[in-house]
């Protein structure tokens, strides 16, 4: 039967070892007694009506539908009253008191409703020598018996104290410690599964299983509680307990459907409506009238639980995966244990009050935990495989990106070369070209002055212009800053001479540029703009007067070149010179302005270098 069958076998072996050990130990098992019944208020047993009964014994074998007190009287022979002697009672259902030779040795807290719930607790009594006598000794047990709860006296053994206490420890392990342990494990795993569902809403099956586990604990606490609190009667305890069992079976059935990836909305709605009605009726019945209904509800709920496990087997029997097979093992064990418990509950074939469904629930929880661990292990495998694929994909993407960056770098280098060539062309046009045109204009205007010194000055001016272009091309990438007024002085001197040589009077108006520091590229743009504008005056204007103004303020640098010639007849965007000036204005961050009319031509940059202090 797999893991669950192995668990049941462990329990069976423990019970067998307990019995075998008891038989081999120096203990005397009391197997016969006399029993008599009385009402709740009787504090001493009646004198008449005693029946011979076996031990262990169910009192409702002799008195059906009886609720009251049952007295058991037993005797044993004590050879040595001075020997350390122990008395072990497997359990008393529901509560009781124990007398030895007329002396009260044990009494549960409450022997009438609300009864102490000591029905699962083994008892050990140390019999001191004054209590015992040589020969026949009498043991009297008062049992508070409720017919619906299987009133019973368990196995009773008396003998050597150490052996008796060892037997008590084994009883306690099986009947108390293991139940408390499984309760704690189920509670922990139930909370864990619900938390898992809250964090991963897609794990609906685990959420339903966590809920069903916590509902099962509401039923299982019946086996470990020793106090009637918070209820006033055991009847109420049993009713609430039956409601938890019913809700558990409903939640477990939904878990089966979700685990098998099924949704049956109509059937589920009908099931929950039936459960709600059954629970409401159970809780609304008055005291004294709930027991018959509770019995029927437990039988119906148990049968439905068995049906849910049959459904699980039918939906997964062809599935070869490990997870369904683990649950199939649990389902088979549920069927075996549940069938036994139902028959034992109705006293059919089985007369023991030992129920095994609680143990199978614990094994079922372990199976679910194993399913979760299996899924976790598979998820880790998928994550590791994904990490490997991701690493490979990242490496491939990195290589591809490197190739793209290399290609992009090559393109940018090509563009940079083209840009440098274009800048060189503009500088040659605006600088050296302007100087050549100015020199040609000077020669044409006064050829008679062409002396050797004069020509030498012109050639030196062209040399200086070429040197300026070369030096600017070299230092421009460094972007070193310098005072604009210092860079403007040579151009002002040279262009003034050229204009005056051509008969054009020039007037320079400078303000605020003494402290203006700009980069070499910005200096070159300013100088080229002024040079190109004055070259146009020399070449095209026919003017006799030119005004050059450079003004720096908080609003930026303004550059203006005006003449009184006949006009260029040009508009922005026409001619390489104007396009070059417009581009330089853009690079300087200013607005380009141009106007040309007879008697006045004006080119300007407004608001350049606005961010420059």
Computed structural class: alpha+beta
Strand content: 15-25%
Level of helix content?
55-70%
Strand order across the largest sheet? 3-2-5-11-8-9
Give the integer mean of the pLDDT values. Answer: 81
Poorly predicted tracts of residues: 1-11, 16-24, 474-479
Overall number of domains: 3
Counted beta strands: 20
Radius of gyration: 54 Å
How many DSSP helices? 12
Major beta sheet, specifics? 6 strands, antiparallel
Basic shape: rod-shaped
State the separation between the terminal residues, measured CA to CA.
Answer: 90 Å
Structure overview:
By secondary structure, the protein is an alpha+beta fold. It folds into three domains: 149 residues, Galactose-binding domain-like (Jelly Rolls, Sandwich), CATH 2.60.120.260; 188 residues, no CATH class; 183 residues, Histidine kinase-like ATPase, C-terminal domain (Heat Shock Protein 90). Helix content is 56%, strand content 19%. The protein contains twelve helices and 20 strands. The strands form five sheets. A six-stranded antiparallel β-sheet has the order 3-2-5-11-8-9, with no helix packed on it. The protein starts with a helix and ends in a 5-residue tail after the last strand. The N terminus is likely disordered.
């Amino acid at each position: 039967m797999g893991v669950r069958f192995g668990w049941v076998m462990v329990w069976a072996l423990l019970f067998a070892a307990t019995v075998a050990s008891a038989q081999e130990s120096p203990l005397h098992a009391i197997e016969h007694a006399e029993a008599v019944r009385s009402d709740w208020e009787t504090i001493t047993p009646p004198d008449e009506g005693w029946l011979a009964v076996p031990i262990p014994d169910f009192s409702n074998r002799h008195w059906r539908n009886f609720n009251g007190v049952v007295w058991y009287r037993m005797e044993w022979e004590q050879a040595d009253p001075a020997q350390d002697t122990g008395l072990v009672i497997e359990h008393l259902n529901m509560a009781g008191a124990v007398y030895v030779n007329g002396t009260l040795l044990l009494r549960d807290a409450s022997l009438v409703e609300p009864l102490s719930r000591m029905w699962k607790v083994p008892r050990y009594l140390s019999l001191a020598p004054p209590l015992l006598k040589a020969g026949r000794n009498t043991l009297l047990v008062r049992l508070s018996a409720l017919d619906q709860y299987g009133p019973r006296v368990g196995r009773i053994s008396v003998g050597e104290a150490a052996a008796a206490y060892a037997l008590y420890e084994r009883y306690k392990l099986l009947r108390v410690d293991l139940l408390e342990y499984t309760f704690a494990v189920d509670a922990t795993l139930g909370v864990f599964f619900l938390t898992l569902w809250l964090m991963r809403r897609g794990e609906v099956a685990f959420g339903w299983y966590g809920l069903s586990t916590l509902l099962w604990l509401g039923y299982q606490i019946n086996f470990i509680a020793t106090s009637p609190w918070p209820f006033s009667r055991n009847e109420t305890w049993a009713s609430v307990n039956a409601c938890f069992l019913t809700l558990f079976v409903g939640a477990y059935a939904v878990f089966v459907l979700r685990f098998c990836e099924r949704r049956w909305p109509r059937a589920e709605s009908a099931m929950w409506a039936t459960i709600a009605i059954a629970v409401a009726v159970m809780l609304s019945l008055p005291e004294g009238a709930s027991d018959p209904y509770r019995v029927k509800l437990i039988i119906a709920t148990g049968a439905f639980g068995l049906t849910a496990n049959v459904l699980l087997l039918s939906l997964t029997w062809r599935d070869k995966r490990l997870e369904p097979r683990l649950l199939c093992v649990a389902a088979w064990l549920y069927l075996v244990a549940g069938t036994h418990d139902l028959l034992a509950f109705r006293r059919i074939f089985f007369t023991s009050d030992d129920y095994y469904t609680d143990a199978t629930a614990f094994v079922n929880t372990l199976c679910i935990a194993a399913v979760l661990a299996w899924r976790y292990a598979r998820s880790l495998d998928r994550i590791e495989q994904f990490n490997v694929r991701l690493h490979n994909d990242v490496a491939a993407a990195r290589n591809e990106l490197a190739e793209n960056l290399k290609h992009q770098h090559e393109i940018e280098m090509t563009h940079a070369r083209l840009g440098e060539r274009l800048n060189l062309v503009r500088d040659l046009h605006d600088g050296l070209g302007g100087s050549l045109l100015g020199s040609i204009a000077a020669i044409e205007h006064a050829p008679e002055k062409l002396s050797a010194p004069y020509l030498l000055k012109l050639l030196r001016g062209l040399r200086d212009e070429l040197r300026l272009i070369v030096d600017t091309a070299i230092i421009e990438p460094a972007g070193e800053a310098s005072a604009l007024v210092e860079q403007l002085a040579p151009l002002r001197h040279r262009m003034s001479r050229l204009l005056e040589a051509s008969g054009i009077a020039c007037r320079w108006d400078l303000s605020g540029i003494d402290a203006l520091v700009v980069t070499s590229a910005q200096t070159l743009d300013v100088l080229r703009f002024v040079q190109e504008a004055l070259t146009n005056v020399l070449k095209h204007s026919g003017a006799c007067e030119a005004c050059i103004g450079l003004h720096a303020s908080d609003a930026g640098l303004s550059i203006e070149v005006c003449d009184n010639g006949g006009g260029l007849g040009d508009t922005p965007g026409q001619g390489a010179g104007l396009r070059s000036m417009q581009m330089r204005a853009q690079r300087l961050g200013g607005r380009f302005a141009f106007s040309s009319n007879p008697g006045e031509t004006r080119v300007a940059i407004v608001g350049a270098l606005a961010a420059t202090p």
